[in-house]
Amino acid sequence: MSKVLELKKGTEDGVRDVLKFLLESGKVKCIFSLKRISGNGSAIAYSLITKPEEIDDTVPLFPLMPVNAANLLSQFTFKGPSPEPVAAVVKPCELRAFVELVKRQKGYLDNILIISPTCGGVYPNTMVADPNGDEKAEVDLDKLQAKYWDSIKQYEIPGEIRPTCSSCEQFIPYNADITVDFIGNGNLGQECRLYLNTTKAEEFVQGVDGSILNNEQDIRTDEINNYQKKREEFKNNRYNELELDDIGLEGLVNLFGKCIGCRGCRAVCPICYCQLCTFDSQNSNYKPSTWENDLKRKGGVRVPPNTVYYHILRLTHIGISCVGCGACEDVCPVNIPISSIFKKMGEAIQDKFDYVSGKNPEEEVPLKIFELEELTEVED
Amino acid sequence: MNNENEGIKTEDISSIEDDSQPATTTTSPAPSSENGKGAIIQLEEGKSIDDTLISLLKTGLDKGSFDAVLMPVKVPAGDSFTYLLIRDRSVLDTIPASPLPPIMSVQGAKAISSLTRIENGDLTIAAVMRSCETRAAIELSKLRQANLENMVLISIDCPGAIPLSEFIAVPEKSAEVFQKARSDRDDSVMRPICRVCNKSSMIAGDLHIGTLGAETGSFFIIPNSVKGQEVLDGLNLDAQESISGWHLNANEISEEKQKKRIDANKELKETVGGIDNLTDAFSQCINCHNCMRVCPLCYCQQCYFDSDRMKHPPEDYLQRAESKDSLRFPPDTILFHIGRMMHMTLYCVSCGACEDACPMSIPVSQIYGMVAQDTQELFGYVPGKDPQELRPLATFIETELGEVEE
């Protein structure tokens, strides 16, 4: 249950108003948000903004995730916590991923006011980079957003968003100071409702041109629960389509066979934080005797090696914290449904430890904890 | 960034020359190629050029001309191609191989480097790939990232390659489109970088398969080194036929493409020239660095732009944001591209792997290729052409580039 701040403006305009207020009042030094940047008309990128006028070009709720913001918040606070208050507008999975990075000392939450919407999902980057297979075309971003909002208002899953977004049941942010009422808000164009989840949030918005409603409210309603079931249904259908349940090694070889080893999935994954991946290190510089032996045994070996092994090992390393954001699948030059595979396996791993990635910043990553009695079912 | 020349003074010119060892391929060109001669291979009954070539490779394995073959094959699911190192010739009977697949999924030079980066193996390997992959391999060997001593590099006349994303969407149809375009010599369906490639028939390795200008039902095998000549000898193939027909065709195509390239680069320069235009061109770049990782000539195990040098304290970022009112994050997108260009432009073979891997459809290889054309021309350097030729950055010439002196 949270206090609700209402602004008599469209939801995105209202958020922009709050961001401007935070800068103008000096309550924050900087805003972190999606923004329309100069250049290709459809270019949207995260930006650090210090001048209130620049907020006009922000699109904090735009259904796009060019990069998972957790990577960026981590880069921003890599060398230490932010020395000044900063407000960041991020999607729920980006926030969860950042929490997982914070647990690994790859970032700091201190001094960051988190604003996050209930998330309707994002479009693949190709939607703006290569619309209809034409990289020279420019996309009408306003039209795209309007179409998206039409679905959101009615608790519908918008078509053409990332499959992994359509499968996501964790669209209500954990740990946000302010939650933007987005999914199912029939008045997205006329009203802005912000749930103030923390005292910090209440303090920061004091002075905003809006009114706090009399009653505290719970963002989780029956309609939201029903919507969650829609997402679950999509997820199960997707897993079935990909026949993930008993995919086996042969199935993985078929799925990952066209992998070109670009390692894009690793680069964009917020959880993959290793500065030098084992596959780029001396560990993977094989002497000829290695492949000569393989060659004798099998008659033929794929070169460069480790196509499927790379994916399986990466899954082992990050599955415990995978937030199912879909950045991996989006960046893949050969359209392998990486996110669906990792999400399914990641959830299975997390279930085993009763762990929900990114939900509780105080909860240690299970791999860091030793319990004498655990997973007895795998003992002989 | 560290390089082998750090700390070496100009007096130590001889030590610089010693440090930069030539590529580890055989030194002398084959006598027959100097005389413009090659072997003519007749296509086997009802077989294509590709199948005949595969037969030849099988014979080579049987006769021990080489111990293994490295070439593209179809992946198990049939929806792409990858490099396979084959020792057992029966593998070539069961897995569909393709000396010239419709796409360049992995740059062949990277495959060679992954095998021999640490040291030379015992097995002799015949590596069949496109000319740009062969040249990249030779260049990598100069950079000591590949050892070609036991490699027999076989290049083949290249019609271009289909854009990777297009192929992946409809693999079967794309394969048909490619084969037709190949026989019709129609490059309109190939990647933009391929359409302006004037080195698609460049002989660089040990043997070259010349399909242009040969009588219907045949192709040339042209030796370019003693090693290549020895392979032909082992296969009982006489390189005694004149390849002037092939030369004529290849030169004609090369000149035509060179013209196209000059025009395309001129146009591109107008669109992306200058820092503002270049920034716009890369405005959708998400800094995934796919381009860098698939590039054969980007061999650094840890890229400078992924290192600690690029990580700054939050105070720095906030200061930058304040000075600009709004700072795109992460910053330094253009720094990465210009930096990468500076590091590898002299070795760029314009293979197009970068553009295929870009998730935002940025014309990376066209931009990098355009810059490479100019920088390589400045030094009169063609990467991968001559294994003996020292690369420009490793040589010191006292009077050079006088035009930039005041």
Please give a quick description of this structure.
The complex is a heterodimer of chains A (380) and B (406). Chain A contains 14 helices and nine strands.
Describe the model.
The complex is a heterodimer of chains A (380) and B (406). Chain A has 380 residues and is α/β, with parallel strands linked by helices. Chain A has helices at residues 11-24, 69-76, 92-103, 126-129, 141-153, 163-166, 199-204, 222-241, 248-256, 264-268, 288-298, 307-318, 327-331, 338-352, and strands at residues 3-7, 30-36, 44-49, 86-89, 112-117, 178-180, 192-196, 211-212, 300-303. An 8-stranded mixed sheet of chain A has the order 3-2-4-5-6-7-1-8. The model of chain A has no long low-confidence stretch (mean pLDDT 95). Helices cover 42% and strands 11% of the residues of chain B. Chain B is globular. The model of chain B is unreliable at 1-27 (pLDDT under 50). Chains A and B meet through β2, β3, α2, α4 and α9 of A and β3, α5, α7, α12 and α13 of B. β9 (300-303) of chain A pairs antiparallel with β3 of chain B.
Low-confidence stretches of chain B: 1-27
Let me know the largest β-sheet of chain A.
8 strands, mixed
Q: Report the portion of residues of chain A in β strands.
A: 5-15%
Helix content of chain A: 25-40%
Shape of chain B: globular
Rg value of chain A = 22 Å
Work out the helicity level of chain B. Answer: 40-55%
Biggest sheet statistics of chain B: 8 strands, mixed
Mean pLDDT of chain A: 95
What kind of assembly state do the chains in view correspond to?
heterodimer
Strand numbers in spatial order across the main sheet of chain A:
3-2-4-5-6-7-1-8
